[in-house]
Amino acid sequence: MEAIGRAKLSLLLCASNIVILLALSCIxxxxxxxxxxxxxxxxxxxSAEAIQTxxxxxxxxxRLQEELDLTAVETIHSLTTKVQDLEKECESLKxxxxxxxxxxxxxxxxxxxxxxxxxxLTVEYDRLVDEMGRLKKKVAQTDGR
Length: 145
Hints:
By secondary structure, the protein is mainly α. It is built from one helix and no strands.
């Protein structure tokens, strides 16, 4: 029986060895799979970090673009206000120009009237000087007789 006991023990040891080998094989497979999962996880982590960096860069670009857009809107508003002010000033200057042109025409008309009056006065003066000369001659002729 001792031989049977030894045979059972040998069988038991063989079976244990087989179980241990199978377990080690499974552990090796699981470890290998785990290493693959860890590597894939690290790759995913790197990808996530790259995506996060890209997202941060895009957020910054969007923020800067929004600032530029806001600045552009403010600039457009400011320029629109300036244009409106300049249009008002232009209208005012047009009115002043019209008033000045009317005043100029009036002054030119007055100057022309004064020239005509002056010419008329000069003609009258010349006539009166001539008449005075004739009268003086008559007076001199009358006194001389």
